[in-house]
Amino acid sequence: MLTALLVMTGIALALGAALGYAAVRFRTEGDPLVDKIDAVLPQTQCGQCGYPGCKPYAQAIASGEAGINQCPPGGEDGIRKLADLLGREFTPLSEEHGIEKPKAVAVIDEQTCIGCTLCIQACPVDAIVGAAKQMHTVVAPLCTGCELCIAPCPVDCIAMVSVAETVPTWKWRYPAAAIGKAA
Predict the structure, then answer these.
(1) The whole model's pTM is what?
(2) What is the pLDDT of residue 66?
(3) 105 φ/ψ angles, rounded to the nearest 5 degrees
(4) Is there a binding annotation on residue 157?
(5) Where's the 4Fe-4S ferredoxin-type domain (predicted)?
(6) 54 assigned ligand-binding residue
């Protein structure tokens, strides 16, 4: 009985040591540099940079795998902030990853929507609500303007509406009352 307890304790210690090593060796959560880089990125989660979201892109920048000029939504301002943060030279936005555009929010033409749910599945930030065979709508304050909902829509009922940059909208936040004022 004592031998079995010692063996189990030894296994638990070895497993704990291995997990502890892995947590230190492969850490990404809580890395201060990654967190600072991620804070500069626009949080659109659009994937235009070649990574599945802003956090993985921040991790790639921190590890040297990615350049600081791959984020079209962050644009020139974002590249300058990253260059300052990391002590690197400014490089223009990589054309391969897209072009800088004004901030926008998705708007669904509710008369045309057929309720297919493809836009809901494509939205990386859960900004679209609705049910199968029912009309869908965009929760404007949650929409990051990534445009990932447009391509899967079979009836082309989604449009991007420019958002004027104001104090409430400077970080992609969008007051629902302003939806009619967007141009």
Answers:
(1) 0.69
(2) 96
(3) -130, 145
(4) no
(5) 104-133, 135-163
(6) yes
Taking only the tens place, the pLDDT of each residue in 5-37 is 555 555 655 555 555 555 555 554 579 999 999
Residues 6+ apart with CB under 8 A from 103: 145, 162, 163, 165, 169, 172
What long-range pairs does 48-54 form, CB within 8 A, spacing at least 24? 48/72, 48/73, 48/97, 48/98, 49/97, 50/97, 53/124
In sequence order, the 6+-apart residues with CB closer than 8 A to the CB of 127 are 106, 138, 139, 140, 142, 143, 144
The structure tokens listed for 74 are 């962050």
Q: Which DSSP letter does residue 94 get? A: P
CA–CA separation, 179 and 104 (whole Å): 11
CA–CA gap between residue 3 and residue 48 (Å, rounded): 57
pLDDT tens digits, residue range 98-115?
Answer: 999 988 999 999 999 999
Q: Annotated binding residue at 46? A: yes
3-state secondary structure of 105: strand
Residue 113 labelled as part of a binding site: yes
Domains defined along the chain, listed by start = 28-97 (1.10.15.40), 102-183 (3.30.70.20)
Q: Identify whether the C-beta of residue 28 lies closer than 8 Å to the C-beta of residue 34.
A: yes
Residue 149 labeled ligand binder:
yes
Is residue 119 part of an annotated ligand binding site?
yes
Which three-class secondary structure state does DSSP give residue 170?
A: coil
Show the tokens assigned to 147.
């445009």
